[in-house]
Amino acid sequence: INYDPTGQILDPSPNKDTIIFFIYTDPNNPYSSRIRDISSLSIPYDPSFVYGQTYYVGVILGRTDNKGGIDQIKGCLRVDGGVPFAFYKIPSPNAGPDDAICGRVYDLGGFQSIPGSRIEWRLVQGPTPNSGVLFNNTLDPASQVSALGDFGTYVFELEENNNDICIQKDVVSITFNPSPEVRNVEPRCIAFGAPGSKDGKFIVEADLM
Questions:
Q1: Backbone phi, then psi, for 32, in 5-degree steps?
Q2: Which three-class secondary structure state does DSSP give residue 111?
Q3: Closest CA to 82 of 27, 19, 26, 38
Q4: Residue 182 and which of 15, 44, 115, 190 are 20 to 30 A apart at CA?
Q5: Digits of tens for pLDDT over the chain (209 positions)?
Q6: How far apart are CA 152 and CA 131, in angstroms?
Q7: How many CA atoms lie within 13 A of 115 on its CB side?
Q8: CA-to-CA distance for 13 and 53, rounded, in angstroms?
Q9: What is the dihedral of CA 203, 204, 205, 208, to 10 degrees?
Q10: Rounded CA gap, 59 and 69, in Å?
Q11: Which are the contacts of 200, defined by CB distance < 8 A and separation ≥ 6?
């Protein structure tokens, strides 16, 4: 709260004016919708506040009751306010564990921590400067992604945006490996069976790529 006391004039004793800041919910009825007084110009979040709800800061000027409050019976009250504020939850997205696969297509396993927040995937780094990917849906935490460039490790970032105020990110590394290939398959006889029998033995040699 930025409060400028310049020009403020308070009656001294015995009348003794005092100023109290308070939080309220109805902009049309500040003091009647007061939910708490505040003694600091900094308002920390606590579970009694509802995320996303608009609250207001008001101020009341009046005669002190000598107990830390204002004696409304003494009159000379003045209430002002209208400074809105709201708390928004800090998201905690999870892009999932690092992983490796054979092939070029991977199902991402991201987690969206706040219902209604905005989720977006993006490629942070590929194995080469020209590496590219294709997301099925960048706004889906469980989007499928295809590596269009070289095989290798790709780093993906999952961003969660809550009301364009609270934004957090998490990254995951996925390594795309080429699927193994079997080439140059060649059976080789290592033992001949008796004529007319099926007792011969063969081994198969091949190159695994």
A1: -75, -20
A2: strand
A3: 27
A4: 190
A5: 566 666 666 666 666 777 788 999 999 988 889 999 888 778 999 999 999 999 999 888 777 777 666 767 666 777 777 789 999 999 999 999 999 999 999 999 999 999 999 999 999 999 999 999 999 999 999 999 999 989 999 999 999 999 999 999 999 999 999 987 766 666 666 666 666 666 666 666 655 55
A6: 10
A7: 0
A8: 40
A9: -140
A10: 12
A11: 189, 191, 192, 193
pTM above 0.85, yes or no: no
What's the rounded Cα separation, in Å, for the pair 40 and 85? 15
Give the residue among 121, 93, 106 at the shortest CA–CA distance from 174: 106
The sign one gets for the Cα dihedral 38, 40, 46, 50 is: positive
C-alpha dist (Å) from residue 112 to 12, 18, 88, 154, 158: 56, 47, 15, 21, 9
> Which residues, other chains included, contact 30 with Cβ-Cβ below 8 Å and sequence gap of 6+?
22, 24, 56, 58, 79, 80, 81, 82
Tally of CA atoms within 13 A in the half-sphere of 30 that contains its CB: 17
Residue found under tokens 């942070």: 124
Q: For the stretch 31-69, what's the b/e string if a residue is b when 16 or more beta carbons lie within 10 angstroms of its beta carbon?
A: eebbeeeeeeeebeeeeebeeeeebbbbbbbbbbeeeee
Paired tokens of 133: 């990917």
